[in-house]
Amino acid sequence: MITSTLTQEITYLHADLCSALADPTRLLLLYALSDQPRNVSDLTQELKVPQPTVSRHLKVLREGGLVKATRQGTSVQYELTDHRVIDALDILRSVLRERIQHHADLMDEFIPA
Predict the structure, then answer these.
(1) Which of 16, 17, 44, 78 is the most exposed place for a label (fewest CB within 10 A)?
(2) Domain 4-81 -> CATH class
(3) What CA–CA distance (Å, rounded) separates 64 from 73?
(4) What angle do CA 60, 8, 91 make, to 5 degrees?
């Protein structure tokens, strides 16, 4: 039986997950990590974002359970904990694409070419 307390806890966890996804840099980091594990230096170079910024966002993603860190010598490799998050992001992009197209169609309706 699902209690209201359990429902509330699940809702908070869901919101935390969504919060971890609510930043453009973090989305770019997730997509970069979808190809292969990378360290902070690799991500900094690839995304052209300052190292402290990359580290801060990776911390949020790690705390949200979306990435994991593994020490390899003097370096730390980051990788996705679950590749389904990329599938979910791709679905959201598809929804966004359709919304943009809908707005463009509305503009075409009301503003003649």
Answers:
(1) 16
(2) mainly alpha
(3) 25
(4) 55
